[in-house]
């Protein structure tokens, strides 16, 4: 795979991968690293919220919908209520439009199906580069 | 020369896994991520899947064995959803198909259908494991 850093014009973006599935965390981490992201992973929404409460910040959050302890919609609502305004992209394997709609209304910028593909990452990078 | 022989065998085995419908394009996505920084990425992810899915299979077996008066199909569907998601992540096409069938029986409240289909899920799970183990052994020998 050729370098995709050209899309970022040299800027290194940070991403927080929030997913209870260790396989997805591993795949997404490697995929995003190939695109030049600095990635950090956590297992549920509460860990994501706690990271932000500790002062950490990321350019992009990839938020799984269904997780134990705190799910994606709840974590997204809490992060937005805290004033977090970076891009949050919901990632789900549930196909129902109503579920995706509800998740989006929690405060997502986009909702995509998992596992992520190179094409999806390219689109997200383009959106991030615009900000 | 021997390396070439194993290379050819590995390539043939890989092709049959796709031709016979065991794997889909998600497996190719994993292969695309394998490089010098992650030289055994595909095998690593597949191993992760088989470790994790063993736990999910145990949980589904336990849930199916539940003899209480009100059977919890929602819980069963939730566990299967996780299992199907993991199967999708490695491109396990036949396993995914059986999982979808299982979920249809869940939604219909058909315990007998779930139990029967789960046997198929486990069979496909075991078959793919065997085939991928052979394939990875060939790729190692081909290096």
Automatic annotation (TrEMBL), chain A:
Keywords assigned: Phosphoprotein
InterPro entries: CheY-like_superfamily, Sig_transdc_resp-reg_receiver, ST_Response_Regulator
Positions of the Response regulatory domain: 14-129
Residues with 4-aspartylphosphate modification: 64
Superkingdom of origin: Eukaryota
This protein's name: Response regulator 24
Alphabetical list of Pfam families matching this protein: Response_reg (PF00072)
Automatic annotation (TrEMBL), chain B:
Any one GO molecular function term: histidine phosphotransfer kinase activity
GO cellular component, one term: nucleus
Span of domain HPt: 38-135
InterPro entries tied to this protein: AHP1-5/YPD1, HPT_dom_sf, Sig_transdc_His_kin_Hpt_dom
Key words, A-Z: Cytokinin signaling pathway, Phosphoprotein, Two-component regulatory system
Subcellular location: Cytoplasm, Cytosol; Nucleus
A Pfam family: Hpt
Signal peptide, first to last residue: none
GO biological process terms, semicolon-separated: cytokinin-activated signaling pathway; phosphorelay signal transduction system
Modified residues (Phosphohistidine): 81
Function: Functions as a two-component phosphorelay mediators between cytokinin sensor histidine kinases and response regulators (B-type ARRs). Plays an important role in propagating cytokinin signal transduction.
Domain writeup: Histidine-containing phosphotransfer domain (HPt) contains an active histidine that mediates the phosphotransfer.
Protein's recorded name: Histidine-containing phosphotransfer protein
């Amino acid at each position: 795979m050729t370098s995709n850093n050209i899309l970022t014009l040299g800027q290194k973006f940070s991403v927080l991968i929030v997913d209870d599935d260790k396989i997805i965390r591993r795949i997404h981490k490697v995929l995003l690293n190939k695109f030049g992201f600095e990635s950090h992973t956590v297992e549920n929404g509460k860990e994501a919220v706690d990271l932000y409460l500790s002062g950490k910040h990321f350019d992009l959050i990839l938020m799984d919908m269904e997780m134990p302890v705190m799910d994606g919609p709840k974590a997204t609502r809490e992060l937005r209520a805290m004033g977090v305004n970076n891009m949050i992209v919901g990632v789900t394997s549930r196909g129902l439009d109503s579920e995706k709609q509800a998740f989006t209304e929690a405060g997502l910028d986009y909702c995509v199906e998992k596992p992520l593909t190179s094409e999806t990452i390219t689109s997200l990078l383009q959106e991030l580069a615009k900000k | 020369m021997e390396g070439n022989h194993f290379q050819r065998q590995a390539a043939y085995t890989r092709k049959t896994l796709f031709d016979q419908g065991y794997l889909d394009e998600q497996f190719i996505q994993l292969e695309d991520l394998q490089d010098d920084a992650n030289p055994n990425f595909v095998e690593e992810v597949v191993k992760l899947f088989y470790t994790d899915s063993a736990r999910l299979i145990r949980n589904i077996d336990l849930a199916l064995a539940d003899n209480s008066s009100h059977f919890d199909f929602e819980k069963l569907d939730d566990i299967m959803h996780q299992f199907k998601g993991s199967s999708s992540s490695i491109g396990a096409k036949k396993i995914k198909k059986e999982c979808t069938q299982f979920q249809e029986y869940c939604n219909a409240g058909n315990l007998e259908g779930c139990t029967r289909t789960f046997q198929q899920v486990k069979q496909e799970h075991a078959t793919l494991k065997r085939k991928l183990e052979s394939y990875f052994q060939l790729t190692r020998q081909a290096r």
